[in-house]
Amino acid sequence: MHHLDLRRLILLLTIATTLLTFANSFHASYQTLHRQLIAQTLEANRAYAAKLAHSTDAFLKAAQQQLAYSAALLPERLGQTERLDAEVARLKAQTGTFNGVFVVGADGRVQAAAPWGVGLVGSVLQAEGARRALAAREPLISTPYVGLRGHLLVFLSQPIFAPDGRYLGYVGGAIHLGQSDGSLQALLGNHYYQDGSQLYVVDGNRHLLHHQEPSRIGEIVTGNPAVEAVLQGEEGSRRVLDGTGIDMLAGYAPVAGTGWGVVAQRPSAATLAALDGLMLEILLAALPFFIPMLAALWWLSKLIVRPLRQLAITARYWEFASAREQIRRVRAWYFEAEQLKLAMLDGLALLHGKLGRLNQENITDPLTRLTNRRGLQLALERWQAQRRPFAVIAVDIDHFKQVNDSYGHDIGDRVLQHVSRLLGCISRSSDLVCRGGGEEFTLLLPETSLEGAMQVAERLRGLISHARSPTGSFVTVSAGVAHWPGSAASVAAVLRLADEALYQAKRGGRNRAVMAGQTEVGSEDVPVG
Q1: CA distance 378 to 491
Q2: Chain-wide mean pLDDT for the chain?
Q3: Between the chain's N and C termini, which has fewer beta carbons within 10 Å?
Q4: Residue closest to 525 by CA, chosen among 513, 512, 515, 508
């Protein structure tokens, strides 16, 4: 039976190992990037849908506020044609929100209208939204319906009451949906994507209220899990098949005040098209280097049997910590083997360096560059194993939700970074500063007593409360302090005690620090922005 000689065997083994390693790395890279692209697109679509849902809800609330302001002025103007005409004209022109504005008396007859006043004054509106507004006698946003002029619209109204409580009628405004002259259309935008992406709005009856294809306005959407989920009030993302069977990455969010839903979706194929092209470029770029290497191995294999065998075997175990030392021990007594040995050492060092950076990224919060919850847990496990005592300071920004609501999430993120920098200023090089999530931070102070940590917490609180934040004013923090093993034998219990002390500080008025087991700690008043 014919046997392969050692030179050919080593060559075949090297070729097979190289190909398998390359294929495995190529496949793993593809799968990782594939998952990342899908997850990023889903999250981007969810965030986009949530933003538009919030904007739509805010738009409708602002429209209701305009009508409410007008309703408060109208009781004394009813029956005064010129003043009513001036008011509806003002409402129509003020912000361009409404396509039509009406003042209707308690008998259902139009007393003033813009822009169709001449033809409507004195008549009774028969549209569905108008009839519902007259009967409701309360603020109303109607379900979308087709108006008398053939427009799909939504009708907003505010009741008018006399000072003695008598119902006098209502002031209402019509907003066109899916029309180029509609203010809501201008808010949502056209979004004419070239890759098959879609943005649409559905009402509680699954009718399309907005779509980049105007011909589909009013169409009923069925069989779409994203639509079903958003009409149940859910916000999220998922992979779905649209009505034509196209695989879509959909993000969705409900419009709080109306029962509508906003869905943003992009074809999976469009998301992954760039990945396919990138992987092909990587493959083509690798081939010119791979083929000459095989030719060189073919001619040199007889001369490099021993060192190549050692290097090939070692290369199969790169994941072990001893791999680098094993490569160093190979006696490469000729130039080519020495270069291969050095290349493997460089590659291994590069790989370990990348893995080290990846591990560092895994324990770092991307916004504040502080240690994240995973890194916090690793430090706690290490210090506990070393029996190294430490103090814990749990910190939370006071009224942070108001910062986000008043100034937006971009300013909120800058406030988080502002507080993070101050935490770094107050801490020592041996301390660990972590962001647990949201506006919550944790400081671990090794070899620090409970009283010493309390002093640090008070210095931190004072520093933050007197440093002007990105909002232009001041923010404050509350803190809870505990110690391991002084406060409890269990690390988990110590963290829980620090949180409980933090919440006690919150309940006690905020802008204060509370020590675990302490009932009350005062603080000076600080202006809060």
Answers
A1: 12
A2: 81
A3: N
A4: 512
